[in-house]
Amino acid sequence: MQSPVYKTQYKTVNGSFNRTFFRGLYQGFGPTIITGIPSSAAFFTIYERLKTVTQDAKSAGSAVADLVSCAIINPAEVLKQNAQMHGGDALKPVNSRQSPTLLAVKHFARNPGRLWAGYTALAASHLPATSLSFCLYELLRERFLGEVPRQRLEASASRQVAVSTFSGALAGGFACTLFVPVDVVKTRMRLAAGNTPRLGPLDVANGIFRKEGIHGLFRGGTLSFLASALGCGLYLGSYEACILFL
C-alpha cells in the first residue's frame, strides 16, 4: 500500500483487489526467512555482549546491535518489496511463469550494492522505534504487573507471559505508527533502487508530501499498527515465556 502504484497493480476498475494481490503478499518470503535468522542471532549476540560490558548504557548496546541487524535484513527487504511490486518495467517478467523473487535477484545481481538502498531510512526508523518500543514495553509491563498481587503473580507464570504479550503489543503498535512516514520513504527508495538517478530520503519525502500530502506519508499506517502490535506482542511474549519456562 505504501507504493505509489499499488492501486494500478492490484486493484480492478471497480476498486476490488484482484487475485495477484493476495499471491503477491508472500513474494520475497524466502529471502526474508534466510536473512531473518542470522539478523536476529546477530542482534541478540551483540546486545547481550554489550549489555554485560556497558551496564549503564543498555540503549547503546541495542543501537549497535540494531545497526548490524538492519545491514543483514536490508537486502532481503529490497528483494521482497521489488518482487511484490515487480519494481517497475525493469522487473516485469517476460515469462509469467518466472518467479518475481528470482527476477529481482537477477536484476540486482548486476549491481548488488543497490541491495542496501534505503538502509539509512531503515536504520533511522529502527533505532528510535526500537528504543521507544522497549521503553514503553518496560513501563507498561511494570505498571500492569504492579496491579497484580505478588502471590498470584509468582504462582502464575502464564499471567506474566500474558502481561508481557499485551504490553509488547501496545508498545510496538504505538511506536510503529509514529514512524510510518519513515517507512513510506524507505519503501519508495527501495522500489526505485534499480532506477537512476537515485534520490535521498529528504528528496523522496518532499516529493511524497507535494504529490500526496500528509496522507501519503502515513499510507498503510493502520496495517502497520496491526502488524507491529501482533508481531511485537508475540515476539516479547515468546521471549518472556522462554525465560520463565526454559
Automatic annotation (TrEMBL):
The keyword Mitochondrion applies. It is found in: Membrane. Keywords: Membrane, Mitochondrion, Mitochondrion inner membrane, Repeat, Transmembrane, Transmembrane helix, Transport. PROSITE patterns: SOLCAR. The chain crosses the membrane at residues 161-182, 225-245. This is Putative mitochondrial carrier. The keyword Heme does not apply. Solcar repeats lie at residues 1-53, 159-245. One of its GO terms (cellular component) is membrane. Belongs to the mitochondrial carrier (TC 2.A.29) family. Pfam families: Mito_carr. It comes from Colletotrichum gloeosporioides (Anthracnose fungus). It is a multi-pass membrane protein.
